[in-house]
Amino acid sequence: MKKKLVTLLIMISCLGMLLANLTIQIKGEAKPQTLKETTFSSLNYVDLEDFSTIFKAISKQDRSDNRLYLNLYDEQFIFLEDSPYYTLKAVSYNMNYPLFRKGERLYLPSIFVTEHLRTHFPAAIQRKGNTFQIAKPIDNRLKTIVLDPGHGGKDPGAIGKKLKANEKDINLAVALKLKNLLEKELGVNVLLTREDDRFVSLYERTRFANEKRADLFISLHSNSSKTMVSRGIETYYLSTAQTSDARAVEALENAVVERFEGGSEAKKKYDDLSFILSDLAQTEHLENSNNLAVSIQQNLIAGTQGIDRGVKQANFYVLRGAFMPSVLIEMGFINNPEEEQLLVNEEYRERLARTIFEGIKRFKFRYDRIRNT
Questions:
Q1: 3-class SS at 239?
Q2: What are 213-268's pLDDT values in tens digits?
Q3: Which residues have C-beta within 8 Å of that of residue 65, sequence separation ≥ 6?
Q4: Of all helices (H) and strands (E), which one includes residue 257?
Q5: DSSP assignment of 104-169
Q6: pTM of the model
Q7: Residue 84 belongs to what domain range?
Q8: Of 80, 105, 134, which residue constitutes the final position of a domain?
């Protein structure tokens, strides 16, 4: 009987078993949170994912050299798997117990939370009995995304040559699928400039994104050209159009203002916004807009096997007033019979939404890490 008990204890030690909890009280919040502890080989650990959720920490794993980059309270910690050492500001510290991996999950030694963090952030973290009081974590993660299904209502957008599909319907269908993926799998707040078939001016679309303090603005469109042989996918970010093709798409999308918003007088409203391209608050987002466009375009092509028309720049009115990383996606040519057939296909719309999602996800991972360092 005694031998069986010893064997059982060894098995529990090897597999990991919840032993205790750390109570984390965030200052300014009424209810404390629980950070569960797990034991491995009689050593106490906390799940990195659970830790990151409470402390709003951003982590990046580099599997090529088994490194973990952990960002919290405007500092970056660098760990090595199976090593008790980590560095902070080029100084090494010894936890005495190693960073531990079990399957796809990483575990931090509990001592890092209970002792080391208090040493590094004495003003932000204090211990009172079994409760750790911490300053409200800095959360610079990307949290709100505005999706903009292009056109709508009296503005049908481009119209297919064969099936007579309306661009506005395709854009909205993909946007709704993408919204569901982003909310369900990334946990972000997703807002739509329109959730049904109604007209929204270009100015109102970006104003909505600014008012909601969106972190990203993504406008979804279906392309069209004078010839039925044009095909492929392209993603744009704001700048002066550099190619004749880009200028053609720019003219097509901007024509909405004259056709449906009041003619040349309405166009002046956009042209008079001289602060747009020169304003530093907009300019600082151009690099991230480019990065977002590249990430989305690469995933779209890989996932749909579509023709890659690349990442381009154009002076779209709908992107002008967005003070956050912003892109406009042309998901295919609706006037091309083959691509129109794809764009009305439910399964292909799912694939478009999934691949755009993967591009946003990859961008968010990098963007969050940068904003939290």
A1: coil
A2: 999 999 999 999 988 889 999 999 987 545 555 545 544 455 554 555 545 555 55
A3: none
A4: helix 244-260
A5: TEEEEEHHIIIIIHHHH-TTTEEEETTEEEEPPPP--S--EEEEEE--BTTB--SB-SSS--BHHH
A6: 0.64
A7: 2-134
A8: 134
